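Collaborator request, handled under Task 6.
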Amino acid sequence: MTETKLGQHMAMLGRIVAQFAAGGLTPRTVQSSKMSEFLGKEENSEIAADVLRWMVEEGLIRADVIHKDVMQGDFAVYGAQLTSKGVAVLKSKTETGDTIERQIRRIVSETASMRYLSWDCGLLQRAL
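Structure tokens returned to the collaborator:
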């Protein structure tokens, strides 16, 4: 079965949020064209640009500099950090009573790597 476009965006969102959570509040530079380097696995840069743009516009992350290259379709954030809203999403409870942050941590520790993070992003949808 083919995953929907929204499903692809939600999966990417989960992986990006997991990376930001792992880095705490340390400012990060993230470029959609280099998302594969950021996440440690091959990624679709078009979907990455969509998700990064959405995260900024929804207030999940803030950045010192936001660069949009309309011609190339690249979207980059420099000095990006989770906002208090982004942290609140991570701290929100799931139906099992666990937090999203704890679930991410558990999945990462079980796989020993962020690159294999495949996680039900419906949790994020409900938290937002």
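The cover message to the collaborator said: "Residues 5-123 form a domain with the Arc Repressor Mutant, subunit A fold (CATH 1.10.10). The radius of gyration is 14 Å. Please let us know whether this matches your experimental observations."
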